[in-house]
Structure formats: C-alpha cells, structure tokens
Write a structure and sequence with these properties.
CATH architecture: 3-Layer(aba) Sandwich
Largest sheet: 9 strands, mixed
Strand order of the largest sheet: 1-2-4-3-5-6-7-8-9
Number of strands: 9
Number of domains: 1
Strand content: 15-25%
Helix content: 40-55%
Radius of gyration: 17 Å
CATH class: Alpha Beta
Structural class: alpha/beta
Order of helices and strands: EEEHEHEHEHHHHHEHEHHE
Length: about 280
C-alpha cells in the first residue's frame, strides 16, 4: 500500500499499468464519489491500464486515507489532488471524477488547468444540492450513522434492475459506504454545501466530456448537459443507469472513456457513441 503523508492527513493511492508498455504512457487519474473508495473504479482499471498509467486514490476521510477534522472545502479536495501529483512528479494527467469527484475535476479545470489533459466528469453538477440539504445530511449522519442511509443510497445510486442483477457489485459499494469515516463524510458534505462553480465554468479550457446516468435522480442529464454547454470545448453523453454509472454501464463507460481520451488507442467502438459538441466555443465575458 502506498501513502502520501501530508501535514494534517495522509492519502492512500495506487498506480496500475505503469509496468505495461513502459513509462511513456500518459497518466489517467480517477477520483471517487462521496462515500466510496478507489475500488469504485475497479471495472475501469483493466481496460484503461493497457493504455494509461492509472492513478487512483482515496479522498480524505474515505477508504484508507485518514480524516482531518471537518469541515473541508472544495479547494481542500482540489489541493489534495495537486499535492499527490506533485509528490509523484506527474506534470500532467487526464482526469476522471464522479459526483464530488467530478466537482473536484471542475475545480481543477478552473484553478489548475495546466496540470490536466482531458477531463471527464460524471454524474455531477457545478452545484450539487443546497446548503440546507447538506446540513440535513450531516445531522442525519451524526445522529444515526451512515448505516441508516444505506437503503436510500442504494436506491439513489443504482436502478432497481441493477440492484438485483448487479447485487454483488452493489454490495461492495455499499460496504465501502458504511466503512467511510463519519468525519470524512461530514467534511465532504460541508464542501458540497458551499461549492458553486456555475459562474466559473467558462474558465475551463481543457477538452471536457460530461457523462450522465439516464435515470440519475441526484445529478440528472440536464446538469451535465449544462456544464458541457458552458465550458469552451464540452461534450455531453448519457448512459444507462443512475448515479454510479461507471459501474452500472461499465463496458459502455470504458469504451466511451477510451474513445474520448485518445484516437491513437485501438478502440472497441460503441455504436451509440456519437457525441456532438453542445457548444464548441465560448468567448469569456
């Protein structure tokens, strides 16, 4: 296991694919959602590590990363990414994040665009929820614990069909949810309560793909379409599933990710993947 020791906490990370094809492969970094760990990307690693050096990490307070005292801010979460890239001497990486991970990707595109290649944001928004809704979630966790949120989380994250057909995958994700540090979860809820990047999206210059789950009640396709319309070079694509769409539509997700990240990669084409720019160019006002 590999850890980066920071002044107030440590980050657990893992690199896959570095030994396959040498060190000339580009980097691809994955960033997990609220209440999950790096293993939420297990279905992507085999496909991506053939062509990329894949960097995954557990967000502060999640998985095997430690939890500094809450609250956190979105800049804290983005700063952790930059600290990890600096420590590993990674000058530039493609980035893929889901939910709060996608919000982190947007923050990086605004504040550290030179460290990123292409950006993929999934099941996210420029502002997720309201301060009141996150305050209610924080209170629920403090009084009832994360276990009490499992039934609603399973319903929100996966379609009823996948909760049955993908029961093993769902169970693994929910196990990581329950194992999340309450302080880490509450700290990230506080970051979500104050994060609002809607006015700053026009500053993102990196090519960006926004992937939504067709039936996502938390961050519906309109949220992702709106982001793609605001950034300079944005595409939007919707895949079957709810919030954790990279697991529910893993094969399609992998093909789409490979397609977007590089045309020099030998692809298995997805017949339905023909995205068109929602708005190819914006001039900053």
């Amino acid at each position: 296991m590999a850890f980066l020791e920071l002044p107030n906490h440590r980050l657990h990370y893992r690199i896959d694919g570095a030994a396959i094809g040498g060190s000339d492969k580009p980097w691809l970094m994955f960033c997990n959602s609220l209440g999950t760990d790096m293993h939420m990307w297990d279905a992507q690693v085999d496909a991506m590590s053939r062509h990329y050096r894949v960097l995954r990490y557990d967000r502060r307070g999640h998985g095997q990363s430690s939890a500094p005292p809450p609250p956190y801010s979105l800049s804290d979460l983005g700063g952790d990414v930059i600290a990890l890239l600096d420590a590993l001497d990674i000058e530039r990486t493609h980035f893929c994040g889901l939910s709060i991970g996608g919000l982190t990707g947007q923050w990086l595109g605004i504040h550290a665009r030179e460290r990123l290649g292409k950006v993929v944001i999934c099941a996210t928004a420029a502002k997720i929820g309201t301060a009141e809704s996150w305050a209610a979630r924080i209170e629920a966790v403090r009084t009832e614990g994360l276990g009490a949120l499992v039934p609603a989380t399973a319903e929100r994250w996966f379609t009823p069909q996948f909760n049955v057909s993908g029961a093993c995958d769902v169970a693994k994700v929910l196990d990581s949810f329950v194992a999340t540090s309450p302080d880490g979860y509450v700290g990230c809820c506080a970051a979500l309560a104050t994060a609002d990047l809607r006015k700053d999206l026009v500053r993102i210059e990196n090519p960006l793909l926004a992937i939504s789950g067709e039936d996502d009640p938390a961050c519906p396709p309109s949220d992702l379409e709106g982001i793609a319309a605001c950034v300079r070079r944005g595409l939007h694509l919707s895949l079957p599933g709810r919030h954790i769409v990279n697991i529910e539509s893993a094969s399609l997700f992998n093909a789409v990710l490979l397609e977007f990240l590089g045309s020099d990669v030998q692809l298995v084409r997805v017949q339905d993947f023909r995205p068109q720019p929602v708005l190819a160019e914006h001039t900053e006002t």
